[in-house]
Amino acid sequence: xxxxxxxxxxxxxxxxxxxxxxxxxxxxxxxxxxxxxxxxxxxxxxxxxxxxxxxxxxxxxxxxxxxxxxxxxxxxxxxxxxxxxxxxxxxxxxxxxxxxxxxxxxxxxxxxxxxxxxxxxxxxxxxxxx
Length: 130
Ligand code: SF4
Ligand code: SF4
Prior knowledge:
The chain is of the alpha+beta class. The protein is built from 3 helices and 8 strands; from the N terminus they run βαββαββββαβ. The chain is elongated. One iron/sulfur cluster is lined by residues 74, 79-85, 102, 120-121, 123, 125-126.
């Protein structure tokens, strides 16, 4: 499965683009996270690898910007393992290891469609990367 980030501008939010692509391509799309309103927004989806090219092209042809998802990066120099971000993460990316050091399973991260941990960190140790 491939994770891709869809960016919807305010010019396309009045159209049912995601359902159109699903119908046209006959593909199963797993929506992992979405923040889209009439002003636009982002949606993180997961699609089968062998269908990815066609699905990405279909979204692009309908005016949706498609990017690789943006993930988080933790600056371990700044992080002091307070754990403040752990309970906020909706998909359990962040946990303590046996030494009570915070570890991040970035593969599960919802990236810029979530970003809850970024504002929560008291020392701004977490950043979005491309
Ligand atoms: S961005 Fe969201 S999903 Fe990713 S680690 Fe932070 S809280 Fe968890
Ligand atoms: S909130 Fe910031 S300092 Fe605390 S564990 Fe998370 S990344 Fe580290």
